[in-house]
TrEMBL record:
It comes from the Bacteria. It catalyses: oxaloacetate + acetyl-CoA + H2O = citrate + CoA + H(+). Gene3D superfamilies: Citrate Synthase, domain 1, Cytochrome P450-Terp, domain 2. The keyword Ligase does not apply. Transmembrane segments: none annotated. It comes from Nocardioides thalensis. The active site is at 267, 323. InterPro entries: Citrate_synth-like_lrg_a-sub, Citrate_synth-like_sm_a-sub, Citrate_synthase, Citrate_synthase_AS, Citrate_synthase_bac-typ, Citrate_synthase_sf, Citrate_synthase_typ-I. GO terms for molecular function: citrate synthase activity. Pathway: Carbohydrate metabolism; tricarboxylic acid cycle; isocitrate from oxaloacetate: step 1/2. One of its GO terms (biological process) is tricarboxylic acid cycle. This is Citrate synthase. GO terms for cellular component: cytoplasm.
Length: 389
């Protein structure tokens, strides 16, 4: 009591114990519940990873089928949520719509405030994982002035999402399985990343014991910020500006002179190749096989090659991060830039919920209430405005 450590952004303060995600930034290791991200991306599915994050262990076949069934069953949202979304301006940003509509779900499920009941927590977690793609897809359709597409529960999680985004007629949407798989892998890669800004927001709001929809809405808000969810869009803008492979040396010189940063490079935690970036690069190749290549890919590949050999980047341990190739994939999948962060939010939802559940079941946790170092005036004498003016 009485003692405070000044630690802006909590760079040196652990706010929690957690058994969800392990990162070793020096070695470039990322594990969910102890399983390396490379193995999960290769052999698992997003819903299996979601189960793992939430339950702490891999499902049996029966548990997996039940989990997928429950999530598929809950993909529809109340019709009034649709009306609510219709009320947004024609040019509303999809992230603003997503944040508001997730928060609005708390009013449709008031029992979600009973967070001490495990069955109740379970059903809210299932609902949220199930409904995020529906809300995300509808926010996209809204921005395009197109009618909302209801979930197709014959399709897989990611196929259904693609259907709600891109279906243009009464005919059943038939997504390319390779594109659905790429999106599934991207969701896996984004599913958790320990105490990042949005997870910290979810935990901070959740520590007040509010319902999980309000907590996750706070996470979506944090993710909306350009320092958190917006770098992949900046990578695309940078590649476009460079324009051609022969302009790369000139661009790199500018970066080294401090004119600008090489977007999609460097990371606060990873001082090695971001393990997610390797997997994304491979997925980008798979996607371009289907969609045809993008000239920006050649620029990205050459940029990466040059930077990895350049002393400036080597000395500072700057490697490609998760955002270096993801924007290229999203663009190839026909997503406009403002949807990139919505995709991130859908992928991150199981992580937010796993961390929220860990928080509310942890007896050691307290309401998040950091200390401050007060720098203002003290004990001034108030003078009534009639005497001041
Ligand atoms: N291009 C050029 N120089 C860089 C870059 C870059 N992308 N990143 C860091 N540096 C330099 C920086 O100028 C500094 O050099 P010096 O020591 O000479 O002053 C040194 O490297 C250390 O930089 P820092 O800003 O102290 O490092 P940080 O850990 O605070 O920043 C970062 C991490 C991600 C903000 C930064 O690397 C960056 O701005 N990268 C570009 C933006 C980007 O790709 N962001 C996405 C991050 S991954 C998203 C996620 O995981 O959610």
């Amino acid at each position: 009591p009485g003692l405070a450590t000044y630690d802006p952004g909590f760079l040196n303060t652990a706010s929690t114990r957690s058994a969800v995600t392990f990162i070793d930034g020096e070695k470039g290791i990322l594990e969910y519940r102890g399983y390396p991200i490379e193995q999960l991306a290769e052999d698992s599915t997003f819903l299996e990873v979601a189960y793992l994050l939430i339950h702490g262990e891999l499902p049996t076949q029966e548990q997996y089928e039940q989990w997928v069934h429950e999530i598929t069953y809950h993909t529809f949202v109340h019709e009034n949520v649709k009306d609510f979304m219709h009320g947004f301006r024609y040019d509303a940003h999809p992230m603003g719509m997503l944040m508001a509509s997730v928060g609005a779900l708390s009013t449709f499920y008031p029992e979600s405030r009973n967070i001490s009941d495990q069955d109740n927590r379970h059903i809210q977690i299932v609902r949220m994982i199930a409904k995020m793609p529906t809300l995300g897809a509808w926010s996209f359709r809204h921005a395009q002035g197109k009618p909302y597409v209801y979930p197709d529960n014959d399709l897989s999680y990611t196929e259904n999402f693609l259907s709600m985004l891109f279906k243009m007629s009464e005919v059943k949407y038939d997504p390319d399985p390779r594109l659905a798989k790429a999106l599934d892998v991207l969701f896996i890669l984004h599913a958790d990343h320990e105490q990042n800004a949005s997870t910290n927001a979810v935990r901070s709001v959740g520590s007040t014991q509010v319902d999980p929809y309000s907590s996750v809405a706070a996470g979506v808000g944090a993710l909306f910020g350009p320092l958190h969810g917006g770098a992949n869009e900046a990578v695309l803008r940078m590649l476009r500006r460079i324009g051609s492979v022969d302009k790369i040396p000139e661009f790199i010189e500018g970066v080294k002179n401090g004119d600008e940063r090489l977007m999609g490079f460097g990371h606060r935690v990873y001082k090695n190749y971001d393990p997610r970036a390797k997997i994304i690069k491979q997925q980008a190749m798979n996607v371009f096989e289907v969609t045809g290549t993008n000239p920006l890919l050649d620029i990205a590949l050459e940029l990466e090659k040059i930077a990895l050999e350049d002393e400036y980047f080597v000395k500072r341990k700057l490697y490609p991060n998760v955002d270096f190739y993801s924007g290229l994939i999203y663009e190839a999948l026909q997503f406009p830039p403002e949807m990139f962060t919505v995709l991130f939010a859908i992928g991150r939802t199981p992580g937010w919920l796993a961390q929220w559940q860990e928080l509310v079941t942890d007896k050691e946790q307290k309401i998040a209430r950091p200390k401050q170092i007060y720098t203002g005036d003290r004990t001034l004498e108030f003078v009534h405005r009639e005497k001041r003016w």
